[in-house]
Amino acid sequence: MSASGGTKAIVAALGANLAIAASKFVAFAFSGSSSMLAEGVHSLADSGNQALLLVGGKKAQREATPQHPFGYGRERYIYAFLVSIVLFSVGGMFALYEGYEKVKHPHEIDHWYWPVGVLVFAIIAEGFSFRTAIKESNTLRGTQSWKEFVRRAKAPELPVVLLEDFGALVGLALALGGVGLALATGDGVWDGIGTLCIGALLILIALVLAVETKSLLLGEAAGVEEVRKIEAAVVDGDTVTGIIHMRTLHLGPEELLVAAKIAVRHDDTATEIATAIDAAEARIRTAVPIARVIYLEPDIYSDAEAAKGPDREATPGGPTPTLDH
Fold first, then answer.
1. What is the mean pLDDT of the chain?
2. In angstroms, rounded to a whole number, what is the distance separating the alpha carbons of residues 262 and 277?
3. How far, in Å, are 9, 67, 275 from residue 74 at the CA level?
4. How many Cβ atoms are within 10 Å of 141's Cβ, its own excluded?
5. Bridge partner residues of 295 (DSSP)
6. Residue in 17, 20, 22, 23 with CA at minimum distance from that of residue 114
7. Beta carbons within 8 Å of 218's beta carbon, 6+ residues apart
8. What helix, strand, coil percent values describe the chain, rounded to 5?
9. 175 in helix, strand or coil?
10. What's the rounded mean pLDDT across residues 291-319?
11. pLDDT band at residue 257, thresholds of 50, 70 and 90?
12. Strand 240-252 to strand 255-264: parallel, antiparallel, or no bridges (unpaired)?
């Protein structure tokens, strides 16, 4: 996994969530706070999510087989999508149910120091986990905003952990607010309202994760910068005079497929074209190391066809259309 960073963030989040889940369930047992129960289930669901990400990363490392000739890199996308489902169903829906029950049947919080103490401890632990995820993400994020990083990242682990940890911190603040208001007013309804807010937050995060990982599962092209590097690497100005059209596809976070129809001169020999293709593939791999599967098809460029415009399906066709991101 680019994962060295992704794995470190996952392990940090897993350790924090297991400790926090245990403390929340203890606090619930002593206080009866529904916010504590919802937060305990939330942390338990998060722990399961991190375990799923680790399993997905392990399975993605399997060698390619005749049945799966491009390998198992997309396992990481599948398990990240499962995380969004677990977060939605186990975390969000349970919190909404528990919050509804507490609003409908409120009761005072007993032993207030248990939930307050656990929430403070949980905020510290989640803050450490969130800090680790931010630190590891910054090495990959570059100049992108956080929104762009979550939307465009091809490795799903860090965006998942970032959103989970962010949601956990906001959820803890909501739980602390609900418990505090319940204690201040003596009305347990506030505890239920805090729980409902936690459920709504978890469902929102789950939907964002589901949308982004669905896009990865369907198959995303290389980023704009990678496409530009590949285009520049293909053309040598001698034998390969241009790109007629090109497709890229992520087979996994660190494996890219490149397929292109390249323009060659009509009087080039087969040997010259084969040599030029080998050289172009080497240049592509140097420019974009994750481009591991490359198919280049030579063709005679047609000025007449090119004049018709950027027809992606034309053979031989016009120029490669510009990516719109």
1. 84
2. 9
3. 20, 15, 33
4. 17
5. 259
6. 23
7. none
8. 65, 10, 25
9. helix
10. 67
11. very high
12. antiparallel
